[in-house]
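Curious: can you check?
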Amino acid sequence: MVELASMLGGEDFSDRPNCVCRVIAGFMRSFNDRASHAERQRLAPYAARAVGSRGDRRLTRERRDVCLVWAGARPGGGALRWFLQRLTMRLRIWVVVGMRQALRLDEGAGEYAARVVFARHGTKASFGLLERLLELGEGQGSEAPPLADPVEAATQARVAAAIRQLAGDAQAAQGENGGQSANGNGHARHLGGRHGGNGHEEHVEDDRARNGDPERETKTSQNPHGPARVP
């Protein structure tokens, strides 16, 4: 979904676009990797909201600290205690996510928080944290670029058309499979009914022959080419 945000922001296709806050980008990358197909569809609107979310250092640090607290850090106790908490979180991120994310704590805090929250609290809490990170930049001088720009609008249209086409192809394939199954069953039932009818007619004809049906004998005697009926 971060790649989609890069396209909507008019940048080259990338999972680390300049128009998205590093903390939010890290969170969305990690969340997207763990989400189901349906949950990824719910993430799509957040790609547009993330465009223009990159703010100043104070805002980035605030979002980073929110992620660290959700991931297990304990705030309070003064600056020295919080420094030690961040150092501890760097070590955890190094072990769980990787060295690069530990050195780039803004990015690593988002990725690690997405892992922890998704594993411990589930999808609802993950979306709640993403909402919180985006809300921190709203109304605080962080202004998203207008999506009415011709280039960005065209990009949005192509993305929406691609999503509709994929959904239409899936529905068409499902309908075709269902139609073939129904035709096969109907043909089998039709054949079964026809054979059953023929078998019933033959059975009645045999009963008439055995029981000396008068109508059958009369028809036989009226045939000039057939043998005469013996009284």
Remarks:
- Residues 150-210 form the longest helix (61 residues).
